[in-house]
Specification:
mainly alpha, two-stranded antiparallel ribbon, globular
Length: 231
Amino acid sequence: MQLRITWKYVAAFIALHFIMGELHEQAHISTGYFICGCYGPRDFNVWSTCEQCANPAWAFLATLAGPLFSCSLMWLGASWFSRSLNENKRMIGFSLLFANLPFARIFTALVGGGDEKVVVQALLGDTGNSLSSKIIAASVVLLVCLPPILMVGKKILNRHRWGIVAGFSIIPLLYAMLYQRLFLNWLLQKKVLPEVHIAGTPDIILYHFGIMLIILVFFRQGLIELKKNTR
């Protein structure tokens, strides 16, 4: 199967990426709520448990919930693309893998950050941000996130398949940093729809999530029009 990128696909993929990102954050904060009994502060990409957490010793499970959610969908997407006989399902699998940013998880772990490092530190009782915790976390992330990328890359028939893999790995990381982490968080800091009414989440984040859902529904056909059969 060869891949053919269309503008409709790009619109649908970007929307799916931001939807997956918010669901990742909801996995964090919802788990934190069940553990702590309250919501902590958050923005578009940073969250924390509340100061009055009822079970602070178990708060690391809220950190773990996000990677578990995203990595499960990465593997599901890679499995669909690599093994399914349904071409539409394969293309959705391709999008699902890269919309959950496997390379971003790898890159963040390799530079010594990420949710996985926090979980490893909690399990090891590491309060000093030791090198061993960083190495263990990076190794785990590589073992979990690199194989699905390779699985999908090997099944792409385009001439520059690894260039496609690199593009879908890196470009979403770049535009998310500029648009989400800088621009949208700037709006939130400027008190644009900062009120919290649902799930411990500022209204601007919920409105943005709704807009992304509308875009995804409107351009959903683009996710499966990406394919082109070759024989």
